[in-house]
């Protein structure tokens, strides 16, 4: 087809969005009503008549004609209406249409009645698809421009797939609150960065909807079905008539749906029964791809939202961002394994001898497999729904986010920036799903399950697909702030802090910097009883212990990125930037004193205005209190928050799980008259784990100076030897002490152990060496913290430049080093006794004492 003539739809806004029509275009409008289709047809016909086009109307529906023939002819339009009887059968009807197209020649404009009405005559979705697959290519060859319609949710996805395959344009038209919204799903050979986002059609054009809150507000009101009716679907369909029945009459069908989606026996399931209504369960089922459980993360998110909506409806309506998530059922995971020939490996992996060895091969299969056609089609519908909005694919396994087992960070999640053509976005999404599935076979996840006694448990992987919360800020997409909230704050730095009020780990931009133990960066730690007071100023200047980088989605480059915080300067944040940042007043004072008044003063991410002058901290405190009270258990949440120009905020609750914590414990009697110079270490604050009195039988100490002299491979060898000692000294009261951060991915900042290399320690201690660039990370709320708490490990950070901190390194080094004795006969190629010093203190009666009220800590 050579012609590139641009043709108007008669709707200026639609022309802007899809870059007008072209000769040969077949346009499928997916609508909810006859009136919606009539709306676009009327304007198309008027425009065609005004442009002196040949217009043909194929009328077969059991309703009055869409087009007023007499009115058009009176205006001199070149118009013809053919009334056909679809009841004569597929072949006769299709042949008649074919003959009309042949006789009309090239360049005619056509309007067909809604194709969904053919079902009344043929009782077959298959035939509707056949008709379109025959007719559409012929119209294309004739350079025709043709309007068709389908009623949304009236057809199997197989039919929609066949129609989508051959049509040039597939457009969703929504009518909400007396306004029309256009959402293109397929536009052949045309593209713009916002083409596949929803657009409000106005008299003067169109308005693109880019922010997550408005998108979710719009789309969450729609019920989009993703699959054919099978037994699973029939269960939900048969439940719908009970929506108007009494609660007693609903009980059986509600329990059936609850068992299908969530399960029968668990504390989370019991809470779900209490709060989810039958309508809630039907809505969840309507957004599930495939079948099976939706998994722990999905249940936790949905349940927390429902609790807040029930307990505080006014706040929920005013300040909570709606969600419009999808769920890929756990049965899809099993189906994927079976279809890709991995089931025998799956069985081998469940045995003791194959637990790790078979997992590696199974992981490769999971990374490269293909999906069933029906599932792929449902995924396409979901991606069309989200358009070009960034999304995230999150693990939601059956055991995840349950009481006692958080699986924090053990399974992967992947952001899909979701830019590019529908085909590119689809391929990227499937790749993300494969990677999450493969993460079930990662060594870290397998070791976690093994250490928690879950190795023989069924661990099916469901998936939670969420719209990323945030908005377009220039070429970047991110929320204004995000973080982790804990209802119990056991990391307190002031004796007047109330741990029961909870705490936040708050960052600017994407929340990944709050849940991960990020190198060379510091989230803002907020004690919710005194949110305006920063905890870290005593350890150095405010700039040093603040956030220096921000995680974003770069829409132009279609990837998740970490950028310097300075790159955010000048971006259109669409709210008051001072909520999150303020000038570095100390640096400004230094410039004034040194005669550099005109130098540019950079901002610090401090959240001062947010924490001092808004009710945001109180809102988070109340959310945590309501959830923990309802769970009757401490909770951990992940959230984002976005603001408008008036500084009004909406919180998006992304996740909620029970948080295993150590209580304050009974008051500890400290030894009397202990000179701190006699202690191994002492501190005021900066520990996690409540009141303890822990015996110390072994110190494992990594010496800073010889460690820094090692090559990077040698530093990883140190990490491996720590892991070997961790295994040897299990249940033997060992305390691990080292420079900087345990578990860092940057060996220059600490020892790069995996958590399973230190999981058997009674306590771990991170020591600061500020002049050498190694500092602890007070990472309460991170995945690393979750691991520490679940494993009942006491945590200490020693900031040696602090007046109340004392660390007697020489006292440890005066004891004999038992490294070579302990590792004799191990597989280690080279030992490093000058770096790792292991002391045997069993005869010394050494103990660690802590008191959370006075914030006193001593090891003596």
TrEMBL record:
Entry superkingdom: Bacteria
Classification via Pfam families: PPDK_N (PF01326)
What keywords are annotated for this sequence in UniProt?
Kinase, Pyruvate, Transferase
* Single GO term (MF): ATP binding
Domain called Pyruvate phosphate dikinase AMP/ATP-binding: residue spans: 293-667
Q: Does the keyword Chaperone apply?
A: no
The name this protein goes by in its record: Pyruvate phosphate dikinase-like enzyme
What is the organism of origin for this protein? Faecalicatena orotica
